[in-house]
Structures are given as structure tokens and as C-alpha cells.
Amino acid sequence: MTFTPRTPLPSALIGVFLAGAGCSSTTASISPAKYDKMNCAELNNAVGDTATDISRTAIARGKVANTSVPNWLLGGERVKAVVANRETARIERLQHQQQVIVTARKQRCPSAQ
Length: 113
Hints:
Helix content is about 65%, strand content about 0%. α3 (about 40-65) runs antiparallel to α4 (about 75-110). The protein has 4 helices and no strands.
């Protein structure tokens, strides 16, 4: 007897499993010295890039959290929770990175205060 699912696996769910299959963190360690070498325009761009990454990650986390996992897919809910938690941790790292950039910008750029 073989088991054949009656509904195809949604493409969003496939993406969830691929994302949860062993992605490492793409956020490097945060070094304030890195931002000390930047001028005001570069710091402004870094803040914008970080904000974009935060938004993109939050949208991805929302899609994962709202994915409907079929009952026949064992462990699907657990994988969904792991991926959502990973995205939450990435958002927290990005927010910390953004705070470091904002602090450097406040110290170096008079218009940022």
C-alpha cells in the first residue's frame, strides 16, 4: 500500500521547507567600527537598506505564519514555527544593526539629530 496525497503541495509551503532546510544567517556580525568609516550619505543609505531588509523579512515571516499546512504533512507546523522564529531572530538582529547605524549617524552627522 502506498500513500499518495490528494492535494498538491502548495508552492508557498515548498518555499517554507526550502528556507527551513538549513539556511545560515546572512547577517554578519555588527561592528560599530565599520560604520565609523562611513560618511553621512553612506550611513543614510545603510539605514534605508536595513529598514528595507527588516520589512522584507517581516513580510516573509507573515507569509510563513499564515501558510496553511495540510494535516497529512507530519511536522509541518513545527517547521513553520521554526522558520517563523528564525525570521523573528533575523529581524531582531537587523533592528540592533539599525540602532548601531543610527547611533553612528547621530554622532557624525549634524542633520541627523
